[in-house]
Amino acid sequence: MNLNHHPLFQGLSEHEVTQLLCAGCIHSQSFEKNQTVFHAGDQICEVGIVQSGNVHIEMIDLWGNKSILSNIASGQIFAETYAISRKPLLVDVTTATPSEILFLNLDLLAHSFSDAGSCRDAIMQNLFSICVQKNLILSNRIFCTTPKTVRGRLLVYLSSESAKAGCTSFTIPFNRQGLADYLNLDRSALSKELGRMKRERILDFHKNHFILYQNPF
Fold it and tell me: Average pLDDT, stretch 50-55?
């Protein structure tokens, strides 16, 4: 990943990015699938950037029920709100696939070298813009889980993914269990409803690739 082209480092020169690397403000780490990057309760000062792979933002209740709040794909960032506020995490961050993650340490950014002030100002402004976009993504999940029926949630989610892809044939970032967790649905009920929708020629699917055939309303 070329950091100079990443939205988080927009406005920084190549020299400034190199300074960040040399000062240790940025470091990378490899993770296996299903490995926890951050635990609920952690207090962190680092923003994560997915260089390759996929991570899930998950919430697990007292009874062990898991909900996937967001999927973070390659090039996207996570944990920025907690790194800025220093509040304990209310969620787990877990890799969905083998992943390479870059971490930006905000404490070191502020104190490590003389030019950190200008770098910090640019990065914090970029973080603000990214947070606005991510709030829109989280709002979309609320829309997807608002319908009371399994079919209603599926239609809202798949319609939004189709709109994002600009095509009625598209791939989603979840396997079947991940989709059930994201939509707060029982996996068996989800699979049954997908089967019915397939028989009714509303859609077709193979693993996580979907095709929408008609307006189901």
Answer: 96
E strand or H helix that includes residue 51: strand 46-52
Q: Exposed, middle or buried by CB within 10 Å (0-12, 13-18, 19+), for 42?
A: middle
pTM exceeds 0.85, yes or no: no
| Interatomic CA distance for residues 86 and 179, integer angstroms | 30
How far apart CA 180 and CA 68 sit, in angstroms, is: 9
The per-residue pLDDT for 119 is: 80
Tell me what pLDDT residue 178 has. Answer: 92
167 burial level (CB within 10 Å; 0-12, 13-18, 19+) = exposed
CB 188 within 8 A of CB 180: no
User: What pLDDT, in 10s, does the model give residues 106-156?
Assistant: 988 887 665 556 788 889 899 988 888 888 777 888 899 999 999 999 999
Q: How far apart are CA 70 and CA 75, in angstroms?
A: 14
Sheet containing strand 169-171, edge to edge, reads 169-171, 209-212, 203-206
**For residue 95, what are the β-bridge partners?**
55
Q: Which residues pair with 31 in a beta bridge?
A: 99
